[in-house]
Design goal:
alpha+beta, SH3 type barrels, Alpha-Beta Plaits, 4-stranded antiparallel β-sheet
């Protein structure tokens, strides 16, 4: 899901995730957890939903507050986090089908269609069954409901080449070097991660596995030739890795007050120091991107590595000040 053309949508405010966003995630995660009918390792669940264990636990703790009046113990979701596992079961009142209004039924149906588009969400069989029942009841009150994910320009070309195991000639923009590169790739996996569509496969230029953001592909043309398929291709859904040549691994030391960034950017590691500060390692897409992030953090934020960006916050701040004063 991506900026793949979210150009017509209002930009989301950056900062800590809202309670609304966290609850939307729980609407996907809790049914999955209940259906498992076992104590699920936190690491396994975090990997399944593409998030850190730390953020998963934080969201699950929010679920423990979900209940209904009179808020007695039997009116809350049963959620047990024990050591490195989590178990959940629904309260009995959820087992009784509620009497929904037409508006509520339409809202549930729309939400179910959205859930189908979320990786790691509820099973297709379960959601299709429930949607069919809702559509039967709501048919007289609706024309149709469509939930559509916007697609980047060349997604269809890349996808058709993947199905045909065919290579594609592309012109790709590398933001870290602000340049266009020409290469031939063999698409093997297409996935959405952190709001963007990606393609992963063999890259003839580097002769190795590479991941490319599809909305940064300026041109794409199928070659008609069978491409090289990598048997050892890594699992999809993890774009932010050291194998991506357009990314730079960065280590920052931030204040606890800036911990909101941990919920907004994929991190490689997070370590809390004894003085309360936090050491964060993450991938930067470019110097410009990192500079813009640094000026939003506290003034005493430090870039530990790489050394070339030690003074990036100061230089970015000076550049912004010059632009607005001239």
């Amino acid at each position: 899901m991506d900026d793949t053309s979210d150009m017509n949508k209002p930009l989301k405010a950056r900062g800590p995730r809202s309670a609304e966003d966290r609850v939307k995630g729980l609407l996907v995660m809790l049914p999955w957890l209940v259906q498992e009918r076992r104590a699920v390792p936190l690491a396994e669940m975090a990997e399944h939903f593409g998030m850190s264990v730390q953020h998963l636990v934080k969201d699950l703790e929010l679920a423990t507050l979900c209940g209904r009046p009179p808020y007695t113990p039997d009116q809350y979701i049963e959620l047990i986090i024990d050591d490195d596992t989590v178990f959940a079961s629904m309260p009995r009142f959820i087992e009784n089908a509620p009497a929904l209004t037409i508006a509520e039924g339409l809202a549930v149906l729309t939400a179910l269609k959205s859930v189908q588009l979320i990786p790691g969400g509820a099973s297709v069989e379960a959601t299709n069954s429930l949607m069919a029942k809702l559509e039967t009841v709501l048919a007289p009150h609706m024309e149709s409901i469509d939930v559509v994910i916007a697609e980047p320009e060349h997604l269809a070309t890349i996808n058709s080449a993947k199905d045909a195991k065919e290579s594609v000639e592309i012109v790709y923009f590398v933001p870290s070097r602000a340049e266009l590169t020409e290469r031939e790739i063999t698409p093997e996996q297409i996935f959405s991660d952190h709001g963007h569509w990606y393609v992963r496969g063999f890259d003839s230029k580097t002769k190795s596995e590479r991941t490319f953001r599809i909305d940064r592909i300026e041109e794409a043309k199928r070659t008609g030739k069978r491409g090289r398929i990598l048997k050892s291709l890594a699992a999809a859904g993890k774009f932010f890795t050291s194998s991506n040549e357009s990314l730079t691994l960065v280590t920052l030391e931030i204040n606890a007050s800036d911990s909101w960034m941990l919920d907004n950017y994929p991190t490689e590691s997070v370590v809390k120091n004894q003085d309360g500060s936090i050491r964060v390692t993450l991938f930067a897409t470019s110097e410009h991107w990192l500079g813009r992030l640094l000026v939003r953090l506290s003034a005493d934020t430090k870039v530990i590595s790489p050394r070339k960006w030690h003074n990036l916050r100061a230089s970015t701040s000076a550049s912004i000040l010059t632009r607005y004063t001239n």
